[in-house]
Structure formats: structure tokens, C-alpha cells
Give the backbone structure.
Amino acid sequence: MSDLVDALLIGVKSGLGFQAIFFALLAIGINVHFGYTGLLNFGQIAFAMLGGFGIAISVSQWGLPFWVGVLVGIAAAVVLALLLGLPTLRLRADYLAIVTIATAEGLRLLFRSVSATPVTNGTRGLSAFNQSFIALAPWDTQTRYRILGTSWSGGELWVALVGWVIVALACLLVWALMRSPWGRVLKAIREDEDAVRALGKNVYNYKMQALVLGAVFGALGGMVYAVGTGSAIPDQYQNANTFLAYAALILGGAARVLGPVVGSIILLFILQFADTFLRALISNGVIPDALLSSTDVAQIRFVLVGIGLMLLLVFRPQGIFGDRREVMLDAR
Amino acid sequence: MRARSGGRGRRAFALSLLVATLAAVFAALLPAGIASAEGESVRGTLQTSRSGPIAGITVTVTDSSGSEVDSVETDDQGRFDIPLPAGAGQYTVSIDSDSLPDGVTLGPQGAERTVTVDNGRQQPVNFGLQDGSTGSGGSTIRAVQLLVDGLRFGLIIAVCAVGLSLIFGTTGLTNFAHGELVTIGAIVAWYINVQGGVPLIAATLIAMVVGAGVGALNELALWRPLRRRGTGLVAALVVSIGLSLLLRYAIQIVYGGFSNPYAEYQSQRAVNYGVFTLTNRALATIVIAVVVLVLVALMLQRTKIGKAMRAVADNRDLAASSGIDVNRVILVVWMMGGALAALGGVLLGLSDQVQWDMGFRLLLLMFAGVTLGGLGTAYGALVGSVIIGVFVQMSTLVIPDDTKYVGGLLLLIVILVIRPQGILGSRARIG
């Protein structure tokens, strides 16, 4: 019983911690791409990696101030979005999907390669770039605080607080934009691109603007993650994270302002809860070791996400909040 | 079509999910990986690609105080495995460099290695012997060597990717779970070959049958019911990503995170053909791939089912109205794609060893090849894959080895700018 309570509490902490913020920001970006504009971006993690490494490289390699690093990360993500959009936004949706996933994987391989080691420190990555940010916390970052039965260090609390403020501002921005004329054009592009073109709108430009906006959200997510873990390692930015963010978005409901946020909190809670609870059951001998060993638990989480993603798409594509009519997309 | 999908489709779908779950449970009960927990040792293999395994070289291990622990000669596989009765610690391993065969020289780090052995670990030691096959010998010869290697790699991609392209052509599905068909083929063959003791060729044939079965299961249990429900192509794409995650990590749980070789054809000496060298297994890979691909092309061109496949890929409604059973054709495409992917997986495992994510890592290059040739065309996949394979290998002439896949992915993006429909694709497909 105490195992169950422990697992629940650890799950709650994970659902509110920096990882949930990371996935929420990734998913808000994907929501702008996929939910509102109908762009299939499967390389969102690349923008996050540029955000995280933007800070890491600027601060620990070039010795620049933290906030310059933030600007560098955002600028890098914008440039990548423009580079990706130029060739692919005129093509069919699945081409963008293939190109973005290829870019994300290619960039990760590049960042972890031996030849990039002088800049990114290869597979080991960079660390020690977040002190000046943590030092801004108005409370002592060394002591641990207990909130609702969960234990947080002062630094974790500070990152989570700032992160959730960023998420709230991002949601506010998306809400305001999507009820503006600009947002209505995006939704119209998702529904029928040719009709929008017939009205004299430059579809290509609108798609590009949406791609850049979502990329910036992704970069902010990567920054929160890098600051939260205190390190930037290329292999943290695996493509599976993009798919997890998609799962969070679809779980919460695509084309809804709060869908990605709620989806991320629930997804992180379920993943962490399942992880802790399964480990507890295995160490207690409730689940025999021959069936499942504790080293397999990390993989079980991805298996669950895979099954969940399939079931959601098949039986409830609109997620918790979504409108079914808005998410019955087709590749034109 | 959509109106009468109703309850039957849903029940069939639920049933097939149940079957899939049961299959996953049985798979989880299989023994996982190989466990080898003995005492500490240092081990390694002395070989180069031209000389093959080097037997009879004296390998000496001394501990940190300089006293000799043991001294052995490498066996006929070039291997040495020296137990360390004193347990973990720092050891120096040295080889007798005077007795190396002609043409084989020590690497830049010399004949001695100092290693730190952890508790319970069999510490691998690599001496990095050189035989002049890389680096020296002039860049023209190296280019030819890379061309041949690239041809082999491209043909493997092609064998894997034909199914991917035909499935896209006949159903419109961008199948992100195709890489897992490759992995499943390689791993089924590994279990039959290494744990079952069956010769690799027979194991490969069995794995191809299993691959065809998995392909058929894909179509019957998942994609056909989804098509009947009228699921959109984007939703189907995301479903295939879910399936890919599910299968990939289930495979890692069953098989483990290690890379293992097949039991046969491993320590082969590279044969010198003048301007390039090739092991016999690489030569066999090229021959098998070419023969299989020619057979596939003949089938598409000459047989009734092959013509039907091309007809469905070209225009599904027209094919249906001229009396072709479209669902049957799609099922055959899935089975063929699964069998070919399994064969490609074994061929890949033969050169790069068997790993749980080998198919996923190949998937992007398959997409690159298929897009280059023209999405949905069978011959396009062949041409595009070979070009991608050669390009990836040849690019190591100018870029470092560990970034060679980046070059292939960059090529994909460049193609999309210049000729989005691919080499053999038609303009209408890109939308």
C-alpha cells in the first residue's frame, strides 16, 4: 500500500516537474504545427536540442551571459525552421514528416560525432551552464522543501516555477493568436488549402510563420530541459521524445489551447507512476523476475506509449478535450 | 464503404488487438539474451580485413606491479581470453609484435595496452592492427573500395525498401514501422541460428516465412480494419509510429540491448580482387541481393499478381473496377514486403551484427532511397536505395566516418528541393 502511495506521489511530482514542462512546450509547438495548421512536424526535438545547446554552448564554451544563450538558442531554432520550411512546405504533408524526422536524427548524429566534439563535447555533452539562472531564485536553492508530501530542491522548484510561467504565457499567446484573423487563416489552411489560396492568401507564408512559431516553443522546451537537468547531452534529444510529445498532444486534444499542457501532465504522471510502481512490484516479488526484470521497466514505458498512441488514434482521435471534426486530418 | 463498417469491423479489430497482446506476452516469456557471468578476464581478437584472424601470437598480461599474470597464444580464430584470478584492477596487455605476419603492422598506439578491469567484467582489448587496406594505397583504390561497399549497403537498403515503397504505392500508408520488420527478420534468424543451432541459410529462409507472416498479420489485424473504418492517412501514419515504438521496445525487452553476431561466416579473410577487397560473405550478400531484386522485378513485370500490384499502385479505383481484388493484392504486397525486409535484416546483421534498433536506424535511409527514386514506385526504390548506399559510403572520402548518415539525410533534403517527385516518380504524386 505504501508503495502505491509512494508511486502516486512520485508520479505527481513528475507531472509537475521540469520534464512535464519540457513535453508541454514541445507539444504546444506541435499543436501550432499539427493541430492548427496541419503540418506534420516529426522533428520537434531538433528545435529543442538547438534551444538547449544554444544556452549550453554559449555559456560554457563561449563564456557569454545566460540570457544571450537564450537568444542564441531561439535564433538557431528560427533559422532551422526557415531552412526546413523552404524546400518542404510546398510539398505534401508526409514529405515534411520524412524531412523533419531525418533532420532531427541527422542533427543529433552530428552533435554527438567526434568532429563536433570541440563545440558540443560529443557524446558526453556540456554541463555547468545554469548556475547564473539558478542563482536568481528568491529562496535558498540548497535546502529541500516538502510540498504535498513530495520533496523538491530549491533549484527544482525555481526551474518548475519559471517553466510553468513560460507555459502559461505560451498558452496565452496561442489563445490570442488563434482567435485573431491570422489564426483563422491557419485553421482554414488545415481544412482546405486550395480554398484559402483561392481567397488570395499566401499559404506558403502562413505555413512558414506557423512553423517558426512552433519551433520557438520547441526551443524554449529544450532550454527548460537543459536547465532542469543541468546538462546538455545529444542523446537526451532522441526522436522518441517527439513521439512522446505527439502522444501528449493527442491525449489532451489537438487544436485546443490547454490540450498539450493537460496531456503532458497526465502522460508524465502515468509514465512515472507506472515506472515506480512496476519497480516496486518487482522488488517485492509480486511480479516474478523471470517475467520482467527491473532493467526492462524503462522499455515498458515506451511500449505503453506505443499502445496508447495507437488506441487513441483509432478510438478517440480527439483526445480528452478535442473536437472530432477538427482532427479528422488527411494527407490532402 | 464507410457506412457498413459498423460493429463487425470494430469487433474484428478488438479481437486482433487481443491476439497481438497474447503474442507479445508469449514473446516476453522467451529467454532474454545470453547471460555470461564469470570472473574477470581480458579478451580480444587479433585480425585485420586482409590477413583474417592471426593465430599463434603470444599475448602477455602483467599486473600493476609488473609481475606476469599469464601468457597465451591466440587460437586459430585469432582470439585470446586470459582469466585474471586476482580480480579487478589495472593490467598491462602486450603482444609479441615480431611474430606478426608480413604486411600487418602495429597501430599508432604500439604493442601495449593498459586497461582497468572492473568487477566481474570481461574487458575487451583492441590492438588496432593495420594492414594498409585503409589510409595508404592511394585515394583511387579507396574510392573503388568504398564504391563496392556502398553498392553492398545500397542493395541491402533496396531489399528492405521495396516493400516500403510498394505498401505506400498500394495503400498510401507511410509506414514508420517498416524498420521493425527488418529487425524482426534479423532477430528471428539469430534465435534460430545461434540458440537453435540451425545453419544460417535455413534460418534465413524460416525468418523470411516469419517475416511474411508478420507482414500479413500487420495487414489483416491492423491496417485492413483501419482502412475499413476510414482512418485518414495522417492518423494512420501516427498509428504506425505507435506500432514502431511498441515493437521496437518490446524487441529490446526480449532480445536485450546488445549486438550479437550470427554463428557462421564471421571470421572471414578478405579476398583481394586487385583494386578492392571483399569478404566472401559481402560478395554473397551482393549476389543474393541482386538475384532477389531481379526476381522481384521479373515478378512485377511478368506475372499476373505483379501486374496487378503495379495496377493498384498506379490507380486503385481503376484497378478495382477492372476486376482486380485490391485487398488480396495488398495482402500479397505486405507478405512480400515482410519477407524481403526479413532477408534484408539478415544481410544487414551479417555485416553489422544484430541489434534491437538496427531496422529503425536503417528506416531513414530507406525513406531517403524511396523518396529519391520516387515514392510508391517499385523500381524507384531500387535505384534510389543503391544511390543512397553508394553516396553514404563514398561521402566518407571527404567527411568523417561517424557523420556519414548525415550526408545521406542531407542528400534527401536536397533532392526534395530539386526534384520532389524523385527520379522515377510522376509529378502528380507530390500533391
The mean pLDDT of chain B is 80. The radius of gyration of chain B is 25 Å. Chain B is about 55% helix and 10% strand.
